[in-house]
Amino acid sequence: MSIAEIESKQVESTPPCPAMSWNWRERFFAPVDIASLVAFRVFFGAMMTYHVYAMLAKDWIAPLYIQPVMHFTYPGFGWVQPWPGMGMYVHFHVMGIAAIGVLLGGCYRISAVVLTLGMAHVLLIEKAFYLNHYYLMTLLCGLMVVLPAHHAWSLDAWWRPSLRAATCPTWCLWLLRFQIGMPYVYGGLAKLEPDWLQGFPLGMWLRRKTDLTWLAGIADWEWSPILFSYAGMLIDLFVVPLLLRRRTRWPALFVVTVFHLMNSSIFDIGIFPWMMIGASLIFFPPDWPRTFLRRLGISATLNASEPPAQAKRPSLVLTCVGLYVAFQLLFPLRCLLYPGRAIWTEEGHHYAWHMMLREKDVGIRFYVRDPNSSQGGVVDVRSFLSSRQLSRMAKDSDMILTFVHFLRDHFEAHGKGRLQIRVLALVSLNGRKPQLMLDPNIDYASVPRYWGPQPWIIPLTEPLRQEPWNVPLAEWEEHIPCPTPDQMIELVN
Question: Going by DSSP bridges, is the β-strand pair 360-369/420-429 parallel, antiparallel, or unpaired?
């Protein structure tokens, strides 16, 4: 007996899915099997529950959110700060309860809202801890708020039989597919970058992975960086359409699974590979969970007492979905509005699905000078920043400016007056010879912070090298023309 026959017997009042219609509005709201959406809810809830558990079990809360003296927030979001005291531990425990609520479909809407707000808060607290998959998880949490993923196989549907439904509108699945496809497609487009197309920085990373048995020998082949780079780019660009086509779906799932398993073994990127493997199933037919369970001999039918409610304001739904999709399509492209290459300037790099595109080795110093006494010196950065914050800050001009403003306010609050602060930042991008990234002649304590292009960033001029730069950091200044420490302290606007 087919799925359609089962539904017609057990859900007689549910309208059958209409035949293919050329009216896109009808297809947008046409009912499809809800099983795939529900399976995604269970899977995503489980992933989020594990994520929160891992954060607590590994005791990352204190070093990431409580112990740092300052946090790198985004322009306009300086008001987003960690909760005082042990509040961040409470924050993550509440997120864990909400994640379980999404998993089980209990108090689903409230759980999804709490989880979305919790993830957004954590994401905006600290720019130094930004990861693309944290951003994706936050977006998916937000989508779960509006998707009816609790209308079947959930505690809510068990408590409220009137909520039960065997179908959901077509747009629900396609919105999820769109969001999950974004990191692939835009990640592939970002790899159309000269460095990536020449095998950098992936080749550098592969040569360092001498501990991986399956990679032994392969990384030393001359053509392996180009092969792996182009393979990753092509998978990102074409895996979504291949997953959508019936004939190529299973081969594409195999390729994407191998791809993510390799990434998981080479890079430390948490649950992202596993989440993307499981999320790939959303591209399969909507009834795939029922088919799978039926083959295992498990009944997967639903007893919906009412037909699914039609959208009360279809025009409003269309408008909201359209605006969301348009924003997601356009916001990552803002990097094109900035001069220079994003892998160097970092302008527009976040929230644009730019993944694994650059490696930066950085040498950075902050020089302070009292304009009244002409006395100054070098700031001990490690007394203010954690190692993770320092590593990320030194690569990002906006974070450097944020830290300068923190130092300015810190010294002024401690009676030092308004000091001049200059920065000497030497950066080696993807194995290039290091060069100055910021103009060392500027007093950055007097530079305002804003979203626009930062003209004090020095354009990238160093070419790629066949052999990556391998000079110890302590010797960089012997090979690179730059101001001496005394000159940096004596500089005056």
Answer: antiparallel
**260 is written with which tokens?**
């993510």
DSSP 191: T
Q: Chain-wide mean pLDDT for the chain?
A: 88
* Extents of the domains making up the chain: 361-490
Contact between 167 and 34 (Cβ < 8 Å): yes
User: Does residue 30 contact residue 169 with C-beta atoms inside 8 Å?
Assistant: yes
Where is mean pLDDT largest: 45-59, 253-267, 283-297, 309-323? 45-59
Nearest to 308 by CA among 111, 7, 76, 14: 14
CA distance 70 to 73: 9
Give 131-170 as a DSSP string.
-HHHHHHHHHHHHHHHS-TTSSSSHHHHH-GGG--SEEEH
Q: Is the pTM for the entire model greater than 0.85?
A: yes
Mention every residue, 6+ apart, whose C-beta is less than 8 A from residue 199.
Answer: 225, 226, 228, 229
Q: What share of the chain is helix, strand, coil (3-state, %, to 5)?
A: 55, 5, 40
Is the confidence at residue 481, as pLDDT, over 90? no
Flag whether pLDDT at 51 surpasses 90.
yes
For residue range 33-47, list pLDDT tens digits in order: 999 999 999 999 999
Long-range pairs of 89-94 with CB within 8 A, sequence gap ≥ 24? 89/56, 89/61, 91/118, 91/121, 91/122, 92/52, 92/55, 92/56, 92/61, 92/118, 93/52, 93/56, 94/118
